[in-house]
Specification:
The chain is 39% helix and 18% strand. By secondary structure, it is of the alpha/beta class. It has 2 domains: 233 residues, Rossmann fold, CATH 3.40.50; 242 residues, Spore Coat Polysaccharide Biosynthesis Protein SpsA, Chain A (Alpha-Beta Complex). The strands form 2 sheets. Strands 3-2-1-4-5-7-6 form a 7-stranded mixed sheet, sandwiched between helices. A 7-stranded mixed sheet has the order 10-9-8-11-13-12-14, with helices on both faces. α4 links the parallel β1 and β2. α16 packs parallel to α19 and α17 packs across α18. The longest helix is centred in the C-terminal third of the chain and has 20 residues. The radius of gyration is 25 Å and the shape is elongated.
């Protein structure tokens, strides 16, 4: 029975292989939108495996440094090899365990586009994919919404789309559940394409701006689920950390920071980055990093004066001279207690998350730790950014953020197309983590009132910048 089903699938797509390009042209509006979404998920020059690659059009559009397409159809593979000489294609059945065993390469991305419903045993097929994953590999499953099944069948009968065989009807929750049962953790879900026609450019506008609107998005044709392997994360866990302490007019907090910061792992680098203070902060930093007490504690310490202005400039200057696996930001005002830093370390050191964000909005705050208007604004921004970025954020503005150094480097390359958009640095890191599809985990912290100095934040001028950031994120990350 299983063999018969496979033969039917092979024959079906072999027959369609010569006309596949024509069907793609006929549905150009849909395929161009689909490619646009995939290009946002997948960084250029990556190693990409596509399962059920057809004639290779999607794989080629992603400009991989190494691309491998696997398909059960001999005809489709012949077309792919003929069209895309720079890519690699194999005629094989991914459900055959021998197919995966023959692959000796780890991929950055594995695409399963419109194929998962044809698998005879979805879970066993997914189980086998761990072999070609490392901790940074992302599996992207693209599938159509069951809501559209009658319309797609009608379109096929009217010869408006390529005919397909009957396959499993799966929504994004079904796909996520199947991935999770095979030890792949879902990190992002997204719905796209609500109008699969050009209609003189109107389709592009509808798909860009309406398909991402809550409730309306439930009508979208396309579901995307992004996941990471949980079986391989223990193979590359970090064992060292660089703690970045940006400080401007924080003289009274410098020594206190080192006295209170626990030795949470054996290899800790402390980098003070001073921002043109007027209270003697730089002199205090120079004194403290030479203090034998802190050297004996186990800290390796550096200090620099930031080259420009603003927190983003300070943090990124320190990141550039850091040398450890994990980058951790501890604001010099110590409103996030240094004693809480080990909580962040445990999350990333165990592989539970790849980007760790502090949340000040869970526990009650000390009096005056955050003004009421700031609190309301933070709550509003958390709702907006949860929607914009596809993962839950309760506090985007907490200064304590933790990310692997290798991911920061990748995020810096990925965010180049966004320009110099963020004066704080918080959103550069958040957007980069979102675009890399990193698993985000929040750590609740008890936000304290500052003990020394005055806040560097202007509620209204900085609040206006944050409103601009939301608009920026909508156009650059959501309405694509």
């Amino acid at each position: 029975m299983k063999s018969n089903k496979k033969n039917i699938i092979k024959k079906h797509f072999d027959v369609l292989s010569k006309s596949r390009s024509d069907w793609i042209k006929k549905s150009q509006a849909f395929y161009s939108e689909d490619i646009r979404c995939m290009q946002e998920f997948i960084s250029k020059d990556s190693k990409v495996l596509e399962i059920g690659c057809g004639n290779g059009h999607l794989l080629a559009s992603l400009n991989p440094s190494y691309g491998l397409g696997i398909d059960i159809s001999k005809g489709m593979i012949a077309e792919a090899k003929n069209k895309y000489k720079n890519l690699n294609f194999i005629e094989a059945d991914i459900e055959n365990i021998k197919t995966i065993k023959k692959l000796d390469l780890v991929f950055d991305y594995i695409i399963i586009s419109d194929t998962i419903g044809y698998f005879t045993d979805i879970q066993s097929t997914l189980d086998g994919l761990h072999k070609v994953c490392d901790s940074d590999t992302r599996i992207i499953v693209a599938y159509y919404s069951p809501f559209w099944e009658p319309l797609l069948n009608l379109a096929a009968k009217l010869k408006m789309k390529m005919p397909e065989l009957t396959k499993s009807l799966l929504n994004e929750d079904d796909i996520s559940s199947l991935l999770n049962s095979s030890k792949f953790e879902t990190v992002k879900k997204q719905k796209k394409i609500i109008f699969p026609f050009k209609l003189f450019g109107i389709g592009r506008i509808i798909n860009r701006f309406l398909s991402c609107v809550p409730i309306i998005s439930n009508l979208c044709l396309r579901n995307y689920v992004v996941a990471r392997s949980l079986k391989v994360i223990t193979k590359s866990l970090p064992n060292s950390a660089s703690v970045i302490i940006p400080c401007r007019n924080e003289k009274g907090n410098i020594r206190n920071a080192l006295e209170r910061l626990p030795l949470f792992t054996k290899d800790i680098e402390i980098i003070f980055v001073e921002g043109n203070s007027s209270d003697g902060t730089w002199d205090e930093v120079q004194t403290v990093i030479k203090d034998q007490k802190f050297i004996d504690k186990g800290f390796k310490m550096k200090a620099l004066q930031q080259p420009g202005k603003g927190k983003a400039d300070a943090v990124f200057a320190a990141f550039d001279i850091s040398s450890k696996d994990v980058l951790m930001i501890l604001d010099g005002d110590l409103t996030v207690p240094p004693e809480d830093i080990p909580k962040f370390w445990k999350k990333i050191a165990k592989g539970e998350g790849e980007y760790i964000n502090g949340s000040r909005l869970v526990y009650p705050m000390e009096n005056q730790a955050m003004r009421f208007l700031n609190y309301i604004a933070n709550k509003l921004f958390s709702i907006l950014f949860t929607w914009l970025l596809g993962q839950r954020y309760t506090d985007t503005l907490c200064g304590t953020k933790v990310i692997r150094r290798k991911h920061y480097i990748k995020a810096s390359k990925r965010n180049k197309d966004l320009g110099n958009f963020d004066p704080f640095g918080d959103f550069f890191i958040i957007f980069g983590a979102a675009r890399l599809n990193l698993k985000m985990v929040e750590v609740p912290i008890r936000y304290r009132a500052r003990e020394y100095g005055k806040t560097q934040i202007s509620r209204f001028s900085h609040g206006f910048l944050l409103v601009k950031m939301v608009i920026f994120a909508f156009f650059k990350l959501k309405a694509i």
